[in-house]
Amino acid sequence: MLHLDPIIDTYPAIPYFRATLANVARLQDDFTQAALYLQEAETFAHKVGQGHPGGFRHHRHHEIGLAAGYLAETQGDLAAARAAFTQIHQQDQDQSHYSAAALVGLGWVALQQKDWSAARRHFAAALPSSS
Q1: What pLDDT tens digit does each residue of the chain (131 aa) get?
Q2: The domain containing residue 32 runs over which residues?
Q3: How many structural domains comprise the chain?
């Protein structure tokens, strides 16, 4: 078996790549592979997280959380999708693009639930303010 620790130390973006592969597998309706990629992303993120700044860890966590939320939404598990997107939105104190992406995810969940006012609210909140 390949020992990945030196690779992970050299390439801290591996969790992002795994989360992206999970999204590709989800779009190809290969939910089993998508879940495996997400598990790998979590494992790599935990290993890489040792010794990296907190902000870097949060961005990795948000990237993986978004992929998990969209996988859950695609599989019809709207409660899990809502939980993933809500967690990202609440944890993203910087109100970065991750927060906006989480709000868009919450909007899609609301649309699936035919909650038009909540969908409108989430989509509007995801837009940058014009202040």
Answers
A1: 444 555 545 566 677 778 878 878 888 999 888 888 888 877 777 776 555 555 555 567 778 888 889 889 989 999 999 999 999 888 876 677 888 999 999 999 999 999 999 999 999 998 887 55
A2: 5-95
A3: 1
Q: Is residue 108 part of a domain?
A: no
User: Residue 109 domain-assigned?
Assistant: no
Long-range pairs of 55-62 with CB within 8 A, sequence gap ≥ 24: 55/94, 56/12, 58/91, 58/92, 59/96, 59/98, 60/15, 60/16, 61/91, 62/88, 62/91, 62/92, 62/96, 62/98, 62/102
pTM above 0.90, yes or no: no
